[in-house]
Every structure is written in structure tokens, then in C-alpha cells.
Amino acid sequence: MTRATGRAVLASGGSGDEPPVTIPRDPARDAARRELSKRMYHENDPSLFQRALNAFWDWLDRLFDTAASATPGGTVGLVVVMLFVVAVPAALWWRLGTPGRRPGSVAALFDERPRSAAEHRAASEAHAAQGHWNQAVQERMRAIVRSLEERALLDTRPGRTADEAAAEGGRALPAHSDRLRAAARDFDEVTYGGRRAGEQSYHRLADLDRNLERTTPALADSTAHTPRSGRQGAAE
Predict the structure, then answer these.
(1) What is the pTM of this model?
(2) How many whole angstroms separate alpha carbon 202 and alpha carbon 183?
(3) Which residues have C-beta within 8 Å of that of residue 41, sequence separation ≥ 6?
(4) 14 Cβ partners below 8 Å, 6+ apart?
């Protein structure tokens, strides 16, 4: 009798002199399944959620490995690509403002109560003194446009937008057309685009306002020999 046979006989309760007891393969497999299906063998098994989570992480790990192997530079190259993908939307959000909000002018520049350029300047300076840069920029842009209207360089027109005022003012004062467009863009971004202004933006508009006050309009060149009357002639 071989050693393996002797163990099988002893395990079955025999003395070793009896013939070995053998169990057919299929009943033995079924018996093993029934035994292993008992609850006592599965008390420490992971929950369904844990198994699903493990499967997800395994899939993600395989996906990352596959992408890394297909990307030049391996894992480092993949990380660079992922950072680039994240950086592009972030840059667009920073430049264009909060999604769903238009950075361009969508409402009138002034409110219903008309105020003079001096009043808008005073309000702007008061906001700036308190560090309220958004309101300071808005009021300074209104002061610029109201000043152009008071000098008869712009028609007084309700409902005018900052972009329209900058375009019309740029035709009367072409040397400052680019700065007027930039000022209108600053106004639009803080008013409609969800951006926050800073001290630099305010000082940029304040400097523009002072420079415009000292600038002779371009239309004076073509009418230098023609007598003019009214407020526009006085401004020249």
C-alpha cells in the first residue's frame, strides 16, 4: 500500500487493512461546493460595494497603465497631458468669466437717474478710497462717457453701452481709441462677466479720464476755420 493510499484509508476511519474508499468526482465537487457555501466561510468577505469599488480601481489602474504606455514619456508624459487638459478650461474660465455669463455689454451703461461727470468721478473716488474696485471702475467709466457727452463729443443717448461709447469716443479722439476699448472691456468684465477689478484697473481708467480731458478732439482739425457755437465750440 502506498503512503497516499494509507492516508486516504486512515482519513475514512479504516484500519489500513480495509479496501480504500473512493468518491466519484462529480459528487465530491458538489459536496465541496455545499461546504464552501456555508456562511461561516464568508463572514469576512468584502461587501458588494467594496467589490464594485475594487473593480473600479482595478479598471482605472489598467486604464492609466495603458494610457501611460501609449503616451510619449510614459507616466510623466501622461501627467503633463492631464495637467494641460485641466489648465485649458481654467484659462478660458479666467479669461471669459463665469460660464453662462456674457462678458460683453448686455445692458445700458447708466442707470435711470442722470448724473454729471463730476458726480460719477466723486463716487468713483469714494469707492476707491474704501477699496471697492469693482464699483470704482464702473463709476470711472461712467464719468468718462458722461464727460464726452458734456463736451458734445458724444450725443446724449439713453441705453448706450460701454462698447458703443468707446467706439464712438474713439472716432472723436482717435489717439485714445485703443485705451477706450480697453476701458470698456474692463467695465464689461466686472459688470457682466463676473470678474473682480483691482487697483491697477481703476488707476488705468482714472489716468485715461484725465488724459481725455486734456485732449483736443480730432474733429477740431477739419473745422478749425469754421466758426462754431454751442458747447462743442467751447470745448474746443
Answers:
(1) 0.49
(2) 9
(3) 35
(4) 20, 21
Question: What is the residue-wise DSSP string for 49-71?
Answer: HHHHHHHHHHHHHHHHHHHHHHS
Altogether, the residues listed in the chain come to a count of 236
Task: Decide which of 150 and 71 is more confident.
Answer: 150
- pLDDT at residue 197 greater than cutoff 50: yes
* 113's grid cell: 437717474
Q: Residue 56 carries which side chain, given as an amino acid letter?
A: F
Checking if the pLDDT of 146 tops 60, the result is yes
Rounded Cα distance between 167 and 104, Å, is 14
Nearby residues of 216 by Cβ (< 8 Å), 6 or more positions away: 236
Cα 166 versus chain centre, distance:
27
Report pLDDT digits (tens) over 77-136. Answer: 666 667 767 777 777 666 555 544 444 444 556 665 678 899 999 999 999 999 999 999
Which backbone phi and psi does 213 adopt, to 5 degrees?
A: -65, -30
b/e 153-168 (16+ beta carbons within 10 angstroms → b): bbeeeeebbbbbbbeb
173 compared with 68, residue with greater pLDDT: 173
Distances (CA, A) of 1 to 14, 15, 19, 23: 13, 12, 10, 19
Q: Cα(208)–Cα(152) distance, rounded to whole angstroms?
A: 18
Asked if 151 and 137 touch (Cβ cutoff 8 Å), the reply is: no
pLDDT at 187: 92
Are 188 and 104 in contact by the 8 Å Cβ rule? The answer is yes
Q: C-alpha angle 160/166/172, rounded to 5°? A: 110
The three-class DSSP label of residue 232 is: helix
